[in-house]
Amino acid sequence: MANKTIQTDEMNFEDIKEKDIGEKVKFTFSKDAFKDKELSCWACGNRMKRVKTLIELPDTDLKATIEMFRCDSCNVEYLNGEQAKKYDKVLMIAKAFSKNGFMFERSLNSDGDNYLFRFPAQLTKGWKKHQKVDINPLSATDFFVSVKE
Ligand SMILES: [Zn+2]
Fold it and tell me: How is the chain split into domains, by residue range?
C-alpha cells in the first residue's frame, strides 16, 4: 500500500471504500501515477504546490479528496493526467451511486457455482474473448467493474 503514504489521515473516497468492505484493499496505480511531481504555472512560471481539496460529488452527499496543483500567485488549480483520470472515475462512481444515470437491468443467473449476467451488446464493442476484468466491491450489492485493455 505504498501509495497510501501520499494520502493524509483525512477521509477520502478510497478510505470509505476500504472501511465498507472491512478488509484489505489493494490500490493499483499505473506506472506513471507519480509523474508531474513538480509543475510550473503556465501563466507566471512559479512552482505550483501539490494540494488536497475536498470536493462535493454531484447528486450525492459524498465528498472526495482529490490532489491537484495550485499556483498561489495566480490562484489557478490544475489536475495532471493521472489526477484527472482519478477524478473522472470518482465522478462516475458518484453518478452510479446517485442512480441518476442511464442503466441496464439484467437477470442474474447461476450455473450452480457462479453467478452470471449478460452485458448489453452495445457496450461490448471491441471486447475480446478471455479479456480480463477487475471487480472492486463497493458494498455487498454494488461493484465497480473495469475491463482491462
Ligand atoms: Zn501562476
Answer: 2-147
